[in-house]
Design brief:
The protein is mainly alpha-helical and about 450 residues long. The chain has one domain. The two termini are about 30 Å apart.
């Protein structure tokens, strides 16, 4: 272990957890919000084309972007969890091998997604929720976005590995640079070059390529684990470890994609305006939710390092610190968004039908938004310490076990209101499931800490 790595180990296991989480959370919050802004930027500029079908196409493509993210988070969280605990045990060599292996696996998986997507482009667009009027725009967008699948997937891995090593700042630099570039390229390609929705997709994949290169460079700085091909290991034990740590993320993000597909198909019954409205609501709420995820991601390396070092009291202190502040933030954010809901939606698509439909859905979600803090932090904790059963259940609960049935069943009884209320109902149900599952893990850690204190 190098001097810089030793210094990082001491910092992660001795610095007060509240201050440590705050320091690590600031760059991860920025990174996550900027990642969410990629699609929001596309939605904003495509909305200037004054077409509900074009705006709906970006919403349809969001499901595919969620698949990229699910794949990247599977390899990124799977390898990152292992890396943080191995660094907590001061096992640098095995951590380095896992870092390189996770990135290469993601590149290969992204290449497979790209190939299959381009071959089955039209069926894919229909599967994602395209109506006949949205289909031409969706094809234009998806054709370009699929080209970036390999390195976009790998970027999620690199960003997660950097933050699990306590170097979220390098990840933030890569993500933010790409986002700023995307803001500049979107109007250039969409309006100046008159490429329409295809221009938005092209701007995104160019920006993401720049992010990937900067993230890769960040692995060679500040005592991070450099990505070297000679460290790649195509062995079952490495893939097994990735599966243990990454399956909850794959379930969570994969179900997010499936949930969006179900939402688009359910909303499509009420026309393109409904799809466009829910697309805007998803992105606006995702921006606020990204701040929560980023805060939780600041907790994860603290959790992994200290759990690996058997400092369970620090894990518990960090958990409750995050739950307390996440709940306060979400309550305040929910109040602000509820108040400004029509104005927020109008920024992206100033159409009376879109604004009316989206306002009800957005305000409904705001009423239960504060519940997501405990749900998210508990899910991240169980995943980071390899409580695979609990983490997998919590990962699928909100968007899978509860949301998908809600969005498919409620419209039969409540009409469009069922679509607008589905997310809020799933949030309440997810909390009722999270409390006993997370409580058991917390009690177990408390018992382990008492044993450590006696020995």
């Amino acid at each position: 272990m190098s001097d810089k790595q030793q210094e990082k180990y001491v910092r992660m296991t001795t610095q007060p957890v509240g201050r440590l989480v705050r320091e690590l959370a600031v760059p991860t919050i920025i990174s996550m919000m900027v990642t969410a802004a990629y699609n929001m930027v596309d939605t904003f500029f495509v909305g200037q084309l004054h077409s509900n079908s074009a705006t709906g196409a970006v919403g349809v493509a969001f499901s595919l972007m969620a698949i990229f993210q699910a794949t990247g988070f599977f390899f990124g969280h799977g390898s990152g969890n292992f890396i943080s605990m191995e660094l907590g045990r001061q096992h640098t060599d095995s951590a380095s091998k896992m870092a390189a292996t996770g990135v290469v696996y993601a590149l290969l998986a992204g290449t497979l997604i790209m190939a299959l997507g381009e071959i089955f482009l039209v069926p894919l667009a229909r599967l994602l929720g395209s109506t006949e009027t949205i289909l031409p725009y969706a094809k234009d967008y998806l054709r370009f976005i699929l080209i970036g699948a390999p390195y976009m997937t790998a970027s999620f891995v690199l960003n997660n590995q950097l933050r699990f090593q306590g170097s979220a700042m390098h990840g933030m630099v890569g993500i933010v640079t790409g986002a700023l570039l995307n803001v500049g390229l979107d109007p250039l390609f969409i309006f100046t070059f008159k490429m329409g929705v295809a221009g938005a997709a092209l701007a995104t994949i160019i920006s993401q390529l720049v992010s990937f290169c900067l993230l890769l460079a960040g692995t060679h700085r500040s005592g991070n684990l450099p990505i070297r091909l000679r460290n790649v290991r195509f062995r079952w034990e490495y893939f097994t470890m990735i599966c243990k740590g990454g399956t909850p993320s794959l379930c969570r993000q994969g179900l997010m994609s499936l949930a969006t597909i179900c939402l688009n198909n359910a909303a499509g019954v009420y026309g393109d305006a409904a799809i466009a409205a829910m697309s805007v609501v998803q992105r606006a709420m995702m921006l606020a939710n990204s701040a929560l995820i980023g805060f939780g991601q600041g907790f994860q390396p603290v959790c992994g390092f200290n759990y690996g070092a058997r400092l369970y009291d620090r894990v518990l202190k960090a958990f409750w610190f995050c739950v307390r502040w996440a709940t306060i933030f979400l309550a305040v954010a929910g109040i602000v968004i509820f108040w400004q809901a029509p104005q927020i939606i109008a920024i992206f698509r100033d159409d009376p039908e879109v604004v009316a439909f989206g306002t009800v859905a957005m305000r409904a979600q705001c009423c239960t938004f504060f519940l997501c803090g405990f749900n998210m932090i508990a899910s991240m904790m169980t995943q980071t310490i390899n409580k695979v059963r609990q983490a997998s259940i919590l990962a699928v609960a909100r968007q899978g076990v509860f949301f998908i049935p809600a969005v498919l069943i409620l419209p039969h009884f409540l009409g469009p209101l069922g679509i607008q209320l589905a997310q809020s109902i799933s949030d309440v149900c997810a909390l009722l499931l999270t409390i006993p599952l997370a409580g058991g893990v917390l009690r177990e850690m408390s018992a382990q800490q008492k044993v450590m204190e006696k020995s």
